[in-house]
Design a protein that fits this description.
A hairpin with a 4-residue loop joins strand 8 (132-137) and strand 9 (142-146). This protein has a single domain, classed as FAD/NAD(P)-binding domain (3-Layer(bba) Sandwich). Helices cover 37% and strands 24% of the residues. The chain is of the alpha/beta class and 400 residues long. It has helices at 13-24, 49-57, 61-65, 91-98, 107-121, 166-171, 196-199, 246-252, 258-265, 306-324, 328-357, 362-378, 381-385, 387-390, and strands spanning 6-9, 29-32, 44-47, 73-78, 84-89, 103-106, 126-127, 132-137, 142-146, 151-154, 156-159, 178-190, 203-207, 211-218, 223-231, 241-243, 271-277, 289-291. The chain has an eight-stranded mixed sheet with strand order 5-4-13-14-15-12-17-16, sandwiched between helices. A five-stranded parallel sheet has the order 7-2-1-11-18. A three-stranded antiparallel sheet has the order 8-9-10.
Length: 400
Amino acid sequence: MENKPIIIIGAGISGLTLCLTLLKNGYNTLLFEKESEIDQRGAGINISPNGNAILYNLGLKDKITNLASKPTSIELRTFRKGIIVAKQNLNESCEKFFNYPFLQMQRKDIINILKAEIFSINPGVIFTDHTFESYSEKESSILAYFNNQKTIEGSMIVGCDGINSSVRKIMLPESEVRFSGIVAWRGLVDLQKLSKSTREMSTTVWMGRNSHFVHYPIKKNKFLNFIGTIKKEKWEDNSWHQEGTKEELQNDFKGWNKTVIEIISNIEKPNKWGLFERSPLPRWISKRAVIIGDASHPMSPSYGQGANAAMEDSIVLFRSIDESKNNTQQALEKFQRNRKRRSDNLQKSSKFNTSLFHLQNPILKLIIYSGLYILSHLIPFILIKSRWVYKYNAFKVKLK
């Protein structure tokens, strides 16, 4: 675009997906990461059909499926007795209705796959140890300033720098994230340390009071990934994540089902995240800058759509650039027009799922759980509810 590089800030899933897509289509692009190495903590993530539509179309099917686990079903259970409230077949139905599977992976595996693909095309486009500080927009270009005194001129800047985005803070200085009142525990457990009955469970959501606990296998069923969320009054740490202790985790889920207790007792070093949120922003773009992924629409993990939505953003932004040719402003407006409503809805749906999993009122819980139980025995309720999410193909959806 305009023969100047597209400058990407942040080497997470959205930044790497965008960089790879642009390179594959002949665009001049540079990616800058503040850390000295491109790496991610060991949390697992869901790659639903809308995410796999992207990864498969980028030619990564074999590399993804060689490392992913493929769940057969998902179960919603009560937190103490383990009563199955709802159960849904996943992959047989997903591939039939949405053409792509539902996979579960370790986040850093996807990062490494995307990074390796970029390096195979041009290893010189990624720069680490570059902390982005600010930008200034001109009529025909934009300047990005870094903490090492380096200045890069480009056609646009794409902020893929997460929930604490520096690009967003410059574009929308009044925007702030706030602690959601929920802390998420995350960790990995060697599946061989667990009982046979736990090892054989598919994806399971245990629903409690102001809390829920999810677990599923990753790495071709070598490890069990879990995330446990619980309501907390405050998050005092300056970082959005930190190491926790097994004792604190056990205390947060004291009295839960024996399966949850078994999983927790077999973890060595759990990590905990403060979940932060922000109301939908009025805009994501300026004249020559744009924010995507968590920088623009952070989501609760309860729908498993954070990474998928970030990849969708990357592809729709590429397509908007490609269709707008040398008109940067037109490209950014097209991107925002085609992504904002869906992303706002994904944010709201993710927050709703958290509320559903955290029900307190026993009467309301009985009514909703009974309804879920009946519906799940009559129709594929969970997939029908998620059809609008899973059927979306960022490469094929018509852009307005």
